Amino acid sequence: MAQATTARAGAIVVQIESDTPGTYINVCGITKREWGLEKSLNDFEVPDCTDLNAAQWVQRVVKSISSGASMGGVVSKESLPTLLTLFMVNSSREMRVRFIGFGTGGGTPDLQASGKYHFKDLKIQSDIDGLAEINLSLESDGAVAIASVAALP
Question: Residue 92: what pLDDT?
Fold first, then answer.
């Protein structure tokens, strides 16, 4: 039996496009990252045409696909002003999630999910005996492309 090839936390990189198109920033202070896909389904009960008393099976049709991301960590002076500015913008922003080493190999060693996202939540909290913490979430705005890509510079 072969063991699975796993990834450390640093192999998942989330970058958000800055005010300069095509320029992405890493969010300093982030220690937790989560990214996912979700389908919205419509359910239909389909009768058995030969046995009308039989229980009906449920068939599902995909209505829509969405993506979301959440991040958390410590508040950093390097990132907070930028995050607050980006949050206050009403238009969606390009974001990419890079899975280092999960691509097809060769010239495209990384797997990347990218698309436009809206900031949904940005919350800052602190306890008297700890560091200030930040949590933010983003929701996709349109299609998200998933492809093997070249390594980050």
Answer: 95
DSSP tag of 88: H
- CA-nearest of 33, 16, 21 to 118 is 16
Find the CATH number of the domain harbouring 27.
Answer: 2.30.110.20
Whole-angstrom Cα distance, residue 45 to residue 126? 49
What is d(CA 76, CA 72) in angstroms, rounded to the nearest whole number? Answer: 11
pTM of model > 0.85: yes
Count how many domains the chain has: 1
What are the E-state strand segments in the chain?
12-17, 24-26, 30-46, 57-74, 93-99, 110-125, 133-149
CA 114 → CA 36, 58, 78, 133, distances in Å?
Answer: 12, 33, 24, 26
Residues 87-122: tens digit of each pLDDT: 999 999 999 999 999 998 888 999 999 999 999 999
Domain presence at residue 124: yes
Print the domain residue range for 106: 9-39+69-149
Residue 90 falls inside a structural domain = yes
**Please, what's the largest Cα pairwise distance for the chain?**
69
User: Per-residue pLDDT tens for 113-138?
Assistant: 999 999 999 999 999 999 999 999 99
